[in-house]
Amino acid sequence: MRFYVIGDVSVDLMYFVDALPRPGEETPATRALIKPGGAAATVAANLASLGHKVALAARVGTGPFRETALVNLKRVGVDLGPLQEDEEHPTSSILVFVIAGGDRTMVSSAGASRHLDAAAFKARALDQVDALVVSAYALAGGASREYALRALASAAKRGLTVFADLGTGAIRAAGEHLLEDLSGVDYLLMNRHELAALTGKDSISAGVQTLRHHGIERAVVKLGALGSMVVTPETEALIEPHAVDDVIDSTGAGDAYTAAFAAAVMEGRDPIEAARRANVAGALVATHVGAQGYLVKPEDLEAVVPSK
Fold first, then answer.
1. For 308, how many CA atoms within 13 A lie in the half-sphere containing its CB?
2. What is the distance between the alpha carbons of residues 158 and 124, in angstroms, rounded to a whole number?
3. Burial class (CB in 10 A: 0-12, 13-18, 19+), 114
4. Are 59 and 84 in contact (CB under 8 A)?
5. Which candidate, 57, 102, 166, 295, has a CA 20 to 30 Å from the CA of 44?
6. Collapsing DSSP states into helix, strand and coil, what is residue 212?
7. Mean pLDDT of the region 33-56
8. What is the rounded distance in angstroms from the CA atom of residue 291 to the CA atom of residue 284?
């Protein structure tokens, strides 16, 4: 399958701590790392690792973070033809505090990602594409939103399958227009906190009803250790989690889930089986450090969830 992914490329500055410091305090880090990240970049890298052809539309700065941000994308053969370089804004960066147990807290700087030049989008870029994957960070505002909207419109004209992946920071930055921007996408993927932030509803069922009101009929809610929920016009199903030992870092687990789900759907699997495979992908990534500390391979999923 051929995917066109739009969104952010970043560098993650990771600090592992036992607990976050209170205001005015200082706490030591047990480990500090600089790793490639970004939601769209991590989805693209996993899709390529799963054996698909992937092009990534994103924007990076020309400074020292650039090569770190792109190292895995290059290694797995992601097409960086649509990648833009920005001489004014630095490559996006995220300060990640990984707390004992695998939870994380993040502080982000959008940098170059928010300035993806819409004038550079050419509709013909989607002529040989099977599916479009849009990170909500591309819709957060600025020039990148216009790029993403043009791509969504072109995908609709071509009848492409569209997957959209949310992020809490993107929802906060995008504001009320995000639901309208996402109206009609084939699959919307998010965790329960993102669903609540997007819809203003406390319960999953109420949030799903709001999505349907806005023309989003197929949604996937990532539930972490509880697995995930698939909602379609035909069914609502809770998909059991894939148990793993030694969860180290949940950074990137949701992005790996999105990649595995999108790949499975485009390979012809039904959403339930796709979610089951995606649960495995997210769990495996959480046993490694960094958003791209482990890129999922086809054999990882086949070994646990045999193809039908």
1. 10
2. 10
3. buried
4. yes
5. 102
6. helix
7. 97
8. 11
The strand pairing partners of 59, in sequence order, are 84
Residue that is written with structure tokens 């870092």 in the block: 249
Write out the two tokens for 247: 């969860």
Task: Find the mean pLDDT for residues 20-35.
Answer: 94
Superfamily, domain 2-19+28-304: Ribokinase (3.40.1190.20)
pLDDT at 102 over 80: no
Q: Which of 123, 128, 125, 135 is nearest to 190 (CA)?
A: 135
3-state SS assignment for residue 114:
helix
Confidence of residue 307 (pLDDT cuts 50, 70, 90): low
Dihedral of alpha carbons 276, 263, 75, 134, sign: negative
The encoded tokens of residue 250 equal: 């949940």
Q: Quick one: pLDDT at residue 78? A: 98
Entry pTM: 0.93
Q: Which of 16, 17, 36, 3 is nearest to 290 (CA)?
A: 36
Among 223, 159, 169, 218, smallest CA distance to 7 is for 169
Count of C-beta atoms within a 10 Å radius of residue 299: 8
* Maximum alpha-carbon separation in the chain: 56
Percent of the chain surpassing pLDDT 70: 97
Using CB atoms within 10 Å of the CB of residue 186, give its burial: 0 to 12 exposed, 13 to 18 middle, 19+ buried: middle
Q: Which two tokens stand for residue 266?
A: 């485009």
Q: Which amino acid is at 150?
A: R
pLDDT for position 156: 96
CA–CA distance, 211 with 190 (Å, rounded to integer): 12
The DSSP call for residue 268 is: T
Radius of gyration of the chain (CA): 18
- Tokens 């050419």 belong to which residue? 122
SS3 176: coil
Pairing of strands 104-109, 161-165: unpaired
Q: Which amino acid is at 262?
A: A
Given this model, what pLDDT does residue 169 score?
85
